[in-house]
Amino acid sequence: MKVLIIGGGISGLSAAYHLQKLNLPAQITLIEKEKRLGGKIETVCQNGFIIETGPESLVSYKPEAIHLCQELGLSSDIIHSIPENRKTSLYFNGKLIPLPEGIFSAFSAPAAQTVKALLKTPLLSPVGKLRMGLEPFIPAKKLEEDETAGSFFARRLGKEFFENLISPFLSGIYGGDPENLSMKSILPTFYSAEKKYGSFLKAIRANKKQKLPAEQTSPFVSLKNGLGSLVAKLSDSLINVSVEQGKIALSIRKNVKRYQVTLNTGETLEADIVLLTAPVQISGKLLKEIDPKLSDLLQEIPCSSASVITFGFNEKDLTPPLNSYGFLISRKENLPILACTLSSNKWEGRAPDGKFLMRFYANTILDDPKKITQLIFKHLDSVFKIKKDPELFLVHSHPRVMPEYRVYHQKKLEQIQTLLSNHKGLFLAGNAFQGIGISDCIQSGIKAAEQICQFIP
Ligand SMILES: Cc1cc2nc3c(=O)[nH]c(=O)nc-3n(C[C@H](O)[C@H](O)[C@H](O)COP(=O)(O)OP(=O)(O)OC[C@H]3O[C@@H](n4cnc5c(N)ncnc54)[C@H](O)[C@@H]3O)c2cc1C
Questions:
Q1: 32 Cβ below 6 A of ligand 1
Q2: Domain 303-403 coded CATH 3.30.200.100
Q3: Phi, psi dihedral angles at 62 (to 5 degrees)
Q4: Based on C-alpha coordinates, what's the Rg of the chain?
Q5: How far away, in angstroms, is 262 Cα from ligand 1 center?
Q6: pLDDT for position 215
Q7: Is 440 in a helix, a strand, or coil?
Q8: Residue 6's beta-bridge partner residues?
Q9: What is the pLDDT of residues 82-132, one digit of tens each?
Q10: Between β-strands 273-276 and 2-6, what pairing exists: parallel, antiparallel or unpaired?
């Protein structure tokens, strides 16, 4: 049996690694478009700075990535974000306002702490707080239907709660329009809390007796030498997989028995099993000839772009906010960026002594990053008090990479699964299906490997 994996990002690499572990009677080949493996994950070392050009953290509450690091012998490289700096703020009305802790860990944080933080936050007006307090009296929706995040939070906790507290977080993670994201897909715990307890605030209270997992530690984790070291270890471990970098899959056809994948090199590879892990729009295009309907469904999943702008400063040339991982930016500020991570405050060892590393995240491709940066720093002058230009300035653009899980995403996945089941030996994995985080992608690779294992006689 020949297995062909298309795409060498974390989803494809994780699938290849797990297939190898399952020791199947199959020949496994992985095709990657770029000369480099890892897809969105890349660490660059420059002037003593350790720079993540895409993702910069793993989350401990989704343990697949940490388990994989441990399995690959990276346990001693795992670092936790610096706990005393864990404050995150929202840049709103020209000021940094601390975000109340525990909104998204509301079901594991102590109820009193979460409620107190919400009552104290200046991000809600007295009317907004009153509206939030009415939440237990709002009848729960009975139907099992999906709902947009905008509608769910506005209905239960008020529009102001959504706009000032929820929307910036969702923008920072998903990039696209947070209003239209699917509650069932992106915040299933909140969605089911309403179904189970009838109210979000009642659900928080019901969980007050739960023991806190690592209450004081931040949920963010990384690797001493950056996330690129996970990709490097993973690739090195693929001794029974033929990895072909710098080759692009251009089309897929199928005859009665096998798939034929044509590459940019002119080669056509035959395979009994094809696993697509390329970005969803590309996987969709590759399936055009085999199944136009499936192809369309995949391409209908909207994807927003992302840019990361990294700066390395001399510490004495700016005054970054203290004890803080960074801040989110309210859309009301009309700035072309959504978040700022103060990497040197968040992680040990990201900058050489006397230097400071930070990055901005935007949900577009920036036409003129230098000009935009000047505009941002001018706007944020009161936050950073910059005295001199940075010594390091890097921009990384990621066109159409962040799938937006819009309302009824789960229904779409069911339709995709139904169509996919008509094509024996064809599988899909990646960040467009059951989660966009690195752990979700690893999990999707593992799941695909297990499905392939069941398929092989
Ligand atoms: C700026 C940014 C910040 C992020 N921050 C975080 C974070 O902090 N934590 C977190 O958990 N997640 C984060 N994410 C999300 C996470 O990084 C991605 O969802 C994940 O890395 C996607 O992995 P993947 O393997 O599914 O896709 P990709 O990484 O996109 O890999 C797909 C691969 O397929 C290859 N390919 C494409 N076309 C072809 C073709 N025709 N033939 C062969 N190969 C092809 C590509 O070159 C690529 O290597 C972030 C993402 C971005 C963009």
A1: yes
A2: no
A3: -120, 95
A4: 23
A5: 22
A6: 40
A7: helix
A8: 31, 276
A9: 988 988 999 999 999 999 876 766 555 556 777 888 899 999 999 999 999
A10: parallel
pLDDT of residue 79: 95
Are 312 and 351 within 8 A, CB to CB? yes
309 lines ligand 1 (CB under 6 A): no
Q: Quote the ligand 1 centre to 182 CA distance (angstroms).
A: 21
Chain mean pLDDT for the chain: 92
Q: How many CB atoms lie within 10 A of CB 120?
A: 12
Looking at the predicted structure, is the pLDDT value of residue 212 above 50? no
Is the Cβ–Cβ distance between 362 and 398 less than 8 Å?
A: no
- Please enumerate in sequence order all residues whose Cβ is within 8 A of that of 230, keeping only pairs 6 or more positions apart, or say none: 10, 41, 65, 68, 69, 72, 74, 223
Q: Are 344 and 352 in contact (CB under 8 A)?
A: no
DSSP-assigned beta bridge partners for residue 326: 88, 341
63-87 per-position pLDDT tens digit? 999 999 999 999 999 999 998 898 8
**Overall average pLDDT of the 252-267 stretch:** 95
Amino acid at 135: E
**What is the per-residue pLDDT for 203?**
81
Query: What atom of ligand 1 comes closest to residue 248's alpha carbon?
Result: 42
**Nearest-5° angle of CA 340, CA 343, CA 347?**
145
Ligand 1 centroid vs 316 CA: distance in angstroms? 35
Taking only the tens place, the pLDDT of each residue in 441-457 is 999 999 999 999 999 88
Q: Which residues contact 215 (CB under 8 A, 6 or more apart)?
A: 109
Region of 144 please: left (phi>0), alpha (psi -120 to 50) or beta.
Answer: alpha
- The b-or-e profile of 324-362 (16+ CB within 10 A means b, else e) is bbbbbbbeeeebbbbbbbbbbbbbeebbeeebbbbbbbb
In this prediction, residue 367 carries a pLDDT of 86
Residue nearest to atom 22 of ligand 1 (CA): 431
CATH fold for domain 2-39+228-302+404-455: FAD/NAD(P)-binding domain (3.50.50)
Q: Which CATH superfamily is domain 99-206 in?
A: protoporphyrinogen ix oxidase, domain 3 (1.10.3110.10)
56 lines ligand 1 (CB under 6 A): yes
Q: Are 325 and 88 in contact (CB under 8 A)?
A: yes
Judged against a pLDDT cut of 50, whether residue 179 lies above it is answered with: yes
Here the tokens at position 297 are 């469904």
Average pLDDT over residues 228-242: 98
Q: Where in the chain is the domain with CATH 3.90.660.20?
A: 303-403
Q: Where in the chain is the domain with CATH 1.10.3110.10?
A: 99-206
**Residue 280, helix vs strand vs coil:** helix
Portions of the chain given CATH number 3.50.50.60? 2-39+228-302+404-455
Q: Is the pLDDT of residue 216 over 50?
A: no
